Task: inverse folding
C-alpha cells in the first residue's frame, strides 16, 4: 500500500510540473494589445512622441532601444496610441510633447526639459527622470490601458 501511495504522489508531482510548464509556455506565447492615452497637453503644436520599453535598457530616452516608438501630429486631446500583439510581460511608456517637431525632448542649459513629458504610472518627478521600475506595468490580458498625464516644467 505504501508503494501505491508513493507512485500516486509521484504521478501527481509529474502532472503538476507538466501543467506548470504548459501554463508558462502558453503565457510566453500570449499576445495582448495596449492602448496609451495621453492627456494634459498644453496645445496642439508639434508632435506627441511615445516610446514603449520592454526593459530598462535605454529608458526613458534611449533612441533605438525602445521596443516600439511613434511620433504623430497632435490632433485632439486626449491622444491615443495603440500597440498590437505585444508579448505578455512588463513594459513602461515614456511620452513627450515635441513642440518644435525635431523628435527630441529639448532641454535648457541646466538639463531641465523645455517640452512636456510624461510616463506610465504618472510618477512624481523630483530631480530627474523616473526609473523603469517606477513606471512599469504588466500586459497580461487581451487589452491593457495606460493613462499618462503630461507635465510641463518641474
Result:
Amino acid at each position: 500500500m505504501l508503494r501505491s501511495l508513493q507512485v500516486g504522489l509521484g504521478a501527481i508531482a509529474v502532472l503538476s510540473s507538466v501543467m506548470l510548464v504548459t501554463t508558462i509556455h502558453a503565457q510566453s506565447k500570449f499576445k495582448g494589445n495596449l492602448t496609451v492615452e495621453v492627456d494634459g497637453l498644453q496645445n496642439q503644436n508639434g508632435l506627441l512622441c511615445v516610446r514603449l520599453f520592454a526593459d530598462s535598457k535605454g529608458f526613458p530616452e534611449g533612441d533605438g532601444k525602445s521596443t516600439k516608438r511613434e511620433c504623430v501630429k497632435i490632433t485632439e486631446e486626449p491622444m491615443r496610441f495603440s500597440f498590437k500583439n505585444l508579448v505578455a510581460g512588463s513594459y513602461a511608456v515614456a511620452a513627450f510633447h515635441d513642440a518644435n517637431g525635431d523628435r527630441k525632448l529639448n532641454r535648457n542649459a541646466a538639463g531641465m526639459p523645455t517640452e512636456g513629458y510624461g510616463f506610465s504610472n504618472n510618477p512624481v518627478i523630483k530631480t530627474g527622470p523616473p526609473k523603469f521600475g517606477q513606471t512599469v506595468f504588466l500586459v497580461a490580458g487581451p487589452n491593457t490601458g495606460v493613462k499618462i498625464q503630461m507635465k510641463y516644467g518641474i
Q: What stands out?
A: The helical segments are 2-29, 132-135. The domain at 31-149 is CATH 2.60.40 (Immunoglobulin-like).
